[in-house]
Design brief:
Length: 563
């Protein structure tokens, strides 16, 4: 069995800047090729094509809002046939129509293309973007107008329809009747196809988003009310399965939460634009999901990093504020999803106290975010899903989070509990987690206590491990991942770290650990290339020989004039 790469290996990859990048196209097995041929034969058959016939719409009835920020630089490069995501790059040498032939399935570029996300960016180029958009749509239709197993996959089809509805003026404005008819007919056919296949989406979240996309497209296109109702009913079922009582998605991923809240708002407005009465559950669900998404909003306008999320788009987060008022504003405790939020002065702390379910991808329980004003101080490393597989494996582990990890991976983290108290002096959170070592027949307990002072200038913590034997406790490591924008230097006494934030604030980190370290790490929270960063490390071994099966580590962040 192949051993998962460690975070250190990703750090070494960061240091090898300038190394050549190779695009490896995924090999397609013979069985997969046969399956694709059978699917294509069925999809293109007269029998299936007849099922997609129906009234041809003559217009798009409403335009869903796309609150995500467009990238003008990306649009200009894309208009020249150049696109780069993660480790994939494509250059068509100005022949933009060739891009569909070059993009490899299952890659980030292929997804970007098939979802038609590029419409958002080309829209900022106005007339120049309109011409490029029509060229791309025309070449897509040439290859995929009837059916394609890759391009007509449920999730891609859903995203493509939503983007076409949101940016239809870019494609349809100043065009002749033949072109409009071709585009609108294709959109209607894809909507009817999606009504038959939405349930085949690969993951639960994909099914939910696909059902919402189907609903939006159905209400935006005249004659597609039937698929819209089918999508709405599917969305109702998926929300019942995937949404927690506090409005959080079961993934506990802030970026997914944001996308879900934005999409639900679009569904609500598409229904209201038709003059229909929204179902009773919808408006309440929109408010709950929007409140939960804004719970993760930091002072810089972006999201805190937890469970595979990214900083994401500040404009999209701001757009959710229209659904909120003082009565349904997010609270400081998300009971059902397992997050606490502390705010005092300029400081914000968000702590993950959730239960890690069996099979959970990210081991983030006990980790926390800490920021002062618009400057982030502590964060988690983010999501490496947009990178090669080893990045995703490494960044999902405990040592990629600002939390406790063990070098002995056989130590299990089990049930947890948490408490919160507030008074005039500040706010306290106590977080307890059961530890077990089945191979040794031992069980123990880990406790993290955090106190944020009333003025926001002091954050103190105590970490306690007890119950395991001394050898196991000695493998414990506490990590505090600093945001890349923070400049850090180890003090001469090697008992504290001096921090300088982008907003010119000075902070000092202190600990009772005799072997406090400052090491390299990586940050993938922006969704692009990994960024070199630093982490403060407190190894349990640095405390020397333990007296009994108990260890208490203390630390503090204090605002300081020493910079």
């Amino acid at each position: 069995m192949r051993t998962p790469p460690t975070l250190a290996r990703c750090v070494r990859e960061i240091e090898m800047a300038g190394a050549s990048k190779k695009n490896a196209s995924p090999s397609t097995s013979r069985s997969t090729d046969i399956l694709n041929r059978v699917q294509r034969a069925w999809g293109e058959s007269p029998f299936y094509q007849a099922q997609l016939k129906g009234p041809a719409p003559d217009r798009v009835l409403s335009q869903p809002l796309d609150p995500f920020t467009a990238d003008k630089d990306l649009a200009r490069a894309f208009a020249r046939g150049r696109i780069s995501f993660s480790e994939e790059s494509i250059d068509c040498d100005g022949e933009i129509e060739r891009i569909w032939d070059i993009a490899q399935p299952e890659g980030a570029v292929f997804a970007f293309l098939q979802e038609f996300s590029w419409l958002r960016h080309l829209a900022v180029l106005e007339d120049a973007g309109q011409e490029v958009a029509r060229q791309l749509v025309r070449s897509w239709l040439k290859q995929n107008e009837k059916w394609s197993p890759e391009a007509w996959a449920p999730y891609f089809t859903s995203e493509r329809l939503v983007n076409l509805c949101a940016h239809h003026p870019l494609v349809l404005a100043k065009s002749d009747a033949t072109w409009r008819s071709r585009i609108l007919t294709s959109m209607a056919r894809q909507t009817r196809h999606l009504a038959r296949t939405a349930h085949r989406s690969e993951t639960g979240f994909d099914r939910l988003m696909t059902s919402l996309g189907l609903t939006i497209a159905g209400f935006c296109l005249p004659g597609c009310e039937g698929p819209a109702e089918r999508g709405l009913e599917m969305a109702r079922r998926e929300l019942r399965l995937q949404l927690r009582p506090d409005g959080a998605h079961v993934s506990r991923n802030p970026s997914r939460q944001l996308k879900l809240a934005v999409r639900l708002q679009s569904v609500l407005k598409a229904i209201e634009a038709r003059g229909f009465q929204p179902p009773g559950f919808l408006r309440h669900t929109v408010v709950r999901t929007s409140a939960m998404a804004t719970f993760f909003r930091c002072a810089d306008g972006k999201l805190a990093i937890f469970n595979g999320g990214y900083e994401d788009d500040g404009n999209a987060i701001t757009s959710l504020q229209t659904m909120l008022d003082p009565e349904n504003a997010p609270s400081d405790f998300a009971r059902h999803s397992g997050y606490h939020k502390l705010t005092a002065g300029r400081a914000t702390v968000i702590l993950d106290v959730g239960v890690e379910s069996v099979g959970a991808l990210f081991r983030s329980a006990g980790s926390f975010h800490f920021s002062s004003g618009r400057s982030r101080i502590l964060t988690n490393c983010g999501n490496g899903a947009h990178r090669a597989r080893e990045w995703g494996n490494a960044l999902s582990q405990r040592d990629a989070h600002s939390s406790l990890s063990f070098q002995d991976n056989r130590i299990l983290h089990e049930q947890s509990s948490h408490r919160r108290a507030e008074d005039s002096k500040g706010q306290l959170i106590e977080y307890d987690r059961e530890l077990s070592a089945p191979h040794e027949g031992l069980s123990g307990k880990y406790s993290r206590r955090m106190f944020l002072a009333a003025g926001g200038g002091n954050l103190r913590g105590e970490e306690l491990i007890e119950g395991l034997n001394a050898e196991m406790i000695a493998t414990a490591v506490w990590r505090f991942h600093l945001h890349p924008s923070v400049r850090a230097s180890l003090a001469r006494d090697r008992r504290s770290v001096i921090l300088l934030l982008p907003n010119k604030e000075g902070w000092r980190f202190k600990s009772n650990c005799p072997d406090l370290r400052l090491e390299k790490t990586v940050y993938c929270g922006e969704g692009g290339a990994p960024i070199a960063a630093e982490q403060i490390v407190l190894p349990a071994s640095g405390f020397g020989a333990l007296k009994g099966a108990r260890l208490s580590a203390r630390w503090a962040f204090a605002r300081s004039d020493i910079v």
